[in-house]
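Practice problem. Given the sequence and the SMILES for pyridoxal-5'-phosphate, write out the predicted structure.
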Amino acid sequence: MTTESHGNRLDPHLARYAQRTHSMTASEIRSLFAVASRPEVVSLAGGMPNIAALSMDVVSRSVTEMLAKRGQVALQYGSGNGDPRLREQICDIVALQGITTHPDDVVVTVGSQMALDLVTRIFCDPGDVIVAEAPSYVGALGVFRAYQVGVEHVAMDEHGLEPTALRERLETLAAQGRTPKFVYTIPTFHNPAGLSQPQQRRAEILQICQSAGVLVIEDDPYGLLGFEGSIPEAIRAHDSDGVIYLGSFSKTFAAGLRVGWAVAPHGVREKLTLAAEAAVLCPPAYSQLTISTYLETQPWMDQVKTFREVYRERRDAALESLAQFMPAGTTWTRPDGGFYVWVTLPDGIDATSMLPRAVTARVAYVPGTAFYIDGQGRQNLRISYCFPTPDAIREGVRRLGGVLEEELELLNTFGTTAGPAGSAPTDQAAAPGPQTL
Ligand SMILES: Cc1ncc(COP(=O)(O)O)c(C=O)c1O
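Answer key:
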């Protein structure tokens, strides 16, 4: 094999890569995982579901029964849009969120991450534009970058995506002849902001998108994980033509099985299936049938309730310790479900440049910049409370508080922290406490 002269010794293929790989960079989360997984570090970084709350006996019984009854099917190729029985069961699950749909309109994917990839693949050419909340899910931003799609961020307030800002942005884009291919939103227990859109807000957002003729992508892996037990109605419940709904078993059962889905309008589902077949031929039958058997034979909603309890206890530990240990000027959101708290640091503190010092103090988080396409978010960080024990969360937040105190001391002494984006502190630091965005 001959080698191109444009490579280097580390990667002789450098000159061959497609343009689209130039925007594929390791996410801040990925490089963090290596450090954050050291046992002495309390990781408030990764959003890993708390699988310890799932009984392995129950999973094992489901697998054994599945293999005994449907082993031949489970170990074979399946259909590109997913197992028919599982698609029926998914219809029952989304009905809990007010969605009426037919199994034919469900496309099973390898996690909802793949659904995000497929949706972007079928709608977006390089240079196209989409609209997403700011901040937004890091994995979705990675997909948009990979397809060379421009992301227009629209601000959130304490009720999520802000309707006036959305309307104005759509109008501005239309005036420039740049109609976005879709609006991407996470209305329930947002990752990373921890906020939910009230019903009225959902209706407003839908109405704005409908009148602008823009498709909505509703990403909803956390919808059943509300701490008060009520299940919010999906945006898709009110429009089956203009909304593609994405769901997942990763947070309500097991992320390792890698099964998610899209509920799509008729025409779109055909394209999604063709794209899925091109990517993976079919989603894994083994995982799908395991889930299908589990849903059929186990009280799966009780397991969802157990997860809610586990996450609620951890949310409480996070909020209590934030109130105890955060210095004045720090604010944070108060999630009613899901995995995440979004923290805004005092003026002049830079979460990205502070991270190495935090890891040295044995606590990790994800800096806010990971959740924006354009470098915003330096004053923010995301805390995930889903995985560590409540005691570990308290200890992690205590350590974070210590790091922040040191940063503030540096700032007060030198007018800057060691980071590049330091700026002078404001005189009137607010009391620490729950924030609106
Ligand atoms: C908002 C959001 N969407 C999609 C995903 C992808 O989940 P999965 O591919 O495991 O279904 C995640 C995972 O954390 C997420 O937070």
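Check your answer against the key. The pocket of pyridoxal-5'-phosphate is lined by residues 47, 111-113, 137, 139, 186, 191, 219, 221, 248, 250, 255, 260 (CB under 6 Å).
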